[in-house]
Amino acid sequence: MIYRHAFGKHDQTRYQQYLNDVAAEKAEIKATQLEPYDIIINYLNNQAEYLILELQWNALPNPFEQENLRSILPVVDVSDSMYTSQKIRLLDVLSILGIFFSEKNSSIWSGSFITFSGSPVFE
Asked: Which range in 30-34, 63-67, 85-89, 96-100 is most confidently predicted, on average pLDDT?
C-alpha cells in the first residue's frame, strides 16, 4: 500500500485496469502480509481507497482451507476489559477477527458468531 499513490498518480490508466483485472480475478493482489484488522482500520480511518481494501480483504488467506478448521463458531469477548485507550483497541481486533472468521467459514456457522460480555448473544 506504500506505493499505491505513486502508481495511481503516474499511470492512472494502467492502475485502474489493474484494479478492474483484480476484481475480475484476472490479476492478483497480494494480502499475505496483511492481517484482517490492518484492512479494516484503514477502512475506518479512510486511509485508502475502499475498492483496494475490499480486494485485499477478499485476497486474505482462508484459514478454513485446512480440513480441521472447517466447522467453528467464533466467540468474541466484548466485555469492558476489551475497551482500551490504545490506538487499536482489543475490542476492535477481536470484533474484526470474529467477522473475518464468520465470513470465511463455509460450515453451518457461516456468517455467524457469538459475542459475550455479561450474557452471550448469538449474532
From this structure: 96-100
The domains of the chain are located at 32-122
Nearest to 39, CA basis, from 21, 24, 58, 26: 58
Q: Which residue has the cell 480511518?
A: 45
Residue carrying the nine cell digits 484494479: 19
Let me know the angle formed at the C-alpha of 66 by 30 and 103, rounded to the nearest 5 degrees. 65
Q: How far apart are CA 93 and CA 77, in angstroms?
A: 11
- The answer on pLDDT for 2 being more than 70 is no
The one-letter code for the residue type at 83 is Y
Whether 31 and 52 have beta carbons less than 8 Å apart is answered as no
CB 22 within 8 A of CB 29: yes
DSSP per residue over 24-87, as a string? TTSS----TT--HHHHHHHHHTT-S-HHHHHHHHHHS--GGGSGGGSS---EEE-SGGG--SSS
Q: What is the pTM of this model?
A: 0.71
Distance CA 68, CA 75 (A): 18
